[in-house]
Design a protein that fits this description.
Layout (H helix, E strand, L loop, with lengths): L1 E2 L2 H13 L7 E2 L5 H15 L4 E4 L18 H29 L2 E6 L12 H20 L5 E6 L7 H4 L1
Parallel strand pairs: 1-2, 3-4, 4-5
Helix pairs in contact: 2-3, 3-4
């Protein structure tokens, strides 16, 4: 279980364990190289290596999810790209060598329907998710024949606090 908040991540791990599952926690912000490396170190130490990577980290969209194309600032575009694309790149670069050595691995990118069908708001987020999809295709070609598959999943709207508000 990865998270940026020790208490919340700890509660999820406790719930998984209480239900009979096995879980470990790795705390850090994937938007920073050093913290992403610390998360990767913790995951590898707890599990002895990573053969399935689910990239589900995502940066917040501009304007609390309400900014239009002309309202989203360049800084918000960069943050959306870092949070949705570069976070995945950091972990892929870290874990793919081990997957290649093992001859097997799975990389699953969590994208969004807005990557294919952008809304009138959150253009920075939609563009970042489209970039993630493009990256997925390119990476799958790069890793062809290695035993590693790369796929993205593009769910529709998920009722989160930001969507409900």
């Amino acid at each position: 279980m990865h998270g940026r908040n020790v208490e919340r991540a700890g509660r999820v791990v406790a719930d998984i364990r209480a239900a009979g599952g096995e879980a470990h926690v790795a705390i850090g912000d994937l938007m920073h190289d050093d913290q992403a490396n610390a998360v990767a170190d913790a995951a590898e130490a707890a599990l002895g290596g990573i053969d399935i990577l689910v990239n589900n980290a995502g940066g917040e969209s501009s304007g609390g999810g309400q900014a239009t194309w002309l309202e989203a600032t360049p800084a918000e575009w960069l943050a959306a790209y870092n949070g949705n694309v570069v976070c995945a790149v950091r972990l892929i670069r870290r874990f793919v060598p081990g997957m290649k050595a093992a001859g097997w691995g799975r990389i699953i990118q969590i994208s969004s329907l807005v990557a294919h069908r952008p809304n009138l708001v959150i253009p920075d987020y939609a563009a970042a998710k489209a970039a993630l999809n493009n990256m997925t295709v390119g990476l799958s070609k790069t890793l062809g024949g290695t035993g590693i598959t790369v796929n993205s999943i593009s769910p529709g709207v998920i009722m989160t606090a930001g969507v409900e508000g």
